[in-house]
Amino acid sequence: MAPEGDLASPGRRRILGKFRNDTMRNKLAILLLSLATLMARAQMVEESFARDPGPLDFVKGEGYEQAILQALTGDALVGLDAAGKVVPRLAASWKLKDGTYLFKLRKDARFTDGSPAEAEDVVWTFRAILADPKASPTKRAILEGARVELKDGQVALQSPRAPGRLLMELARIPIAQRGHPDRGTGPFLLRHDNGEWRLLRRDHFLKPGIEGLRFRILGDGQAVAQALQKGWLSLGVPPARLQSQPPPGYRVVTQPMTYQLVVWSRMGLAPLQAMERWRKDAFPPQLLGAGARPSRGLWPGVLGFEDQEIDAATLPLPKGRPLPLLYAAGDEPVEKLLMALRERARRDGVQIDLQPLDPALLADRLQKGDFQLACYLATFDPEPWSVLEYMEPHGPLNFTGWSSPALARIVASLKAPGDAAWTDLQALWAKAPGALPLVDFHSILWVDKRLQVTPGLLGLYLSTPGAAGWRWEK
C-alpha cells in the first residue's frame, strides 16, 4: 500500500512508477511463460520468484530467493531430508572427536569449471563468511566463534554451538570454490539473462531427474494466479481464497514448513502486548485460507513448544501517535493480513501506520535496527534450536538487540529437545520478548500432476535432494 500524502509528491511518483514498471514486467513475464510452455512444457520446470534474488553469492547472498539459487547450484557439507534428518551431501562422512567435527569430502563433487571440491574450498568458504562484515547474517551467526582448519586432508570444525545443533545448521551453508563465491558444486548450473534464471542439469552425485528449472519474476499474487490458471507454471502458490480449488492438470501439495509472520518491536512491550490480543480475532478465515492460522504463544508449537504468552504486566500504548509498522512492499498476501490487523487496532482506538519498503531496504533496516516496529516472514529450521536466532547477540532474527545475562547459562544447559532447560529458556523470553508471531503458515502449492515432488520441512527446494529428486511422469 502506498503511503498517504500528496499524489504528486516525489515519493508517491516513485512508488507509482515502480508499480507501472512491475505491472509491465509481470505482463512480459507471463507472455514469456506462455511461449516457453508451448515450446518445452515437459522439459523445464517453470517457476517464479516474487523478487530479484540478486547475484549468486555463497558468501554474501541472503534471503529466500537467494537460498533457493544456492541450494540448486551448491552443496553444503550435510543436507536435511524431507523428515528433517541430517544426511550426507558434500561430505561423504563425518565424526565428532574431542569436540571437533571432522568431515571427509566425497571424491565425485565438481565445481562448474570442472575442478574437484576439496577441503581447502570448505575452509575458504567458512573463513570468508567469518571475515567479511557484509557476509550473510544467517551464515555468520551459525559460524560465530567457530574455528576451521585442515587436518589430515579433512575439514576440522570447532564451535561453541551444541554438536547436534551445529550439524543441522551446516545444511544452510553451501560451499563455494576458493576465490569464487559465485561457483558451487550443486546439481544445476545457473544461467541468468533476459530477466530469467535458468538452472540446467549437471552431472552430479544426486543424479537430477529433470532437465532444469526456469524462474521469472512475477511480483504479485494476481500474476501468479493467472499463470497457474493458464497452466504456464509447473508449480506455484495460489491465492488463499483459491488454495483448495486447483485447476485441471494440477494437484494440491502441502509443505509442513515452519514459518510465521512476525513483528519486531523497538518500542518496548506495549505494542506487542496489544498485538497479542488483536491477533486472536484480527484475521477473517476467508483471508487466511487453508494454509494459515493466527499464531498462538511466542514460539512455533510444531517445534515442540507449549503456548506461552507474554509474561509481564500490561503496559499502556503511547498516546497521541500512530504505531509505524514497516513491511516488505509487493507481498500482496502479507499486505492484506496487515490491513486486517490495522482494522482490528482501530476498534481499540489505535492507529497503525503501515509503511511499505523495498524488501532489500527493509532487510537492511532490520539488520541495522533502524525501525520502531517491523514485520517480516521468519522461517525456522525443523528443530527447537532455531528459536535461539531471536535471542543470541548476533542471531539472524535478533533485530532489536535483545539480551539477557541469564541467556548464556541456560543455553549451556540445552542438551536435547524436551530438557527442562527449554522451559527456562521460553520463560526468559516471555518476560520481555523482542518479537511476536502473528500468523502461522503451511505452504500450499499447486503442482503439475505430471511432476513428482517431495514436500519437506524445509520446503521443496532447501531439503536434500530437493529439486534434484523431482521426476516428470512419462
Automatic annotation (TrEMBL):
**InterPro entries from the entry?**
SBP_5, SBP_5_dom
Q: What domain of life does the UniProt record list for this protein's source?
A: Bacteria
- All copies of domain Solute-binding protein family, residue ranges: 85-243
Q: Where in the cell is it found?
A: Cell envelope
Predominantly, its location class is other
Name the Pfam families for this protein.
Answer: SBP_bac_5 (PF00496)
Q: Which UniProt keywords apply?
A: Signal, Transport
Q: Which SUPFAM superfamilies match?
A: Periplasmic binding protein-like II
**Family matches, as PANTHER family:** PERIPLASMIC BINDING COMPONENT OF ABC TRANSPORTER, PERIPLASMIC OLIGOPEPTIDE-BINDING PROTEIN-RELATED
Q: Which family does it belong to?
A: Belongs to the bacterial solute-binding protein 5 family.
The protein's name: Solute-binding protein family 5 domain-containing protein
What is the organism field in this record? Geothrix rubra
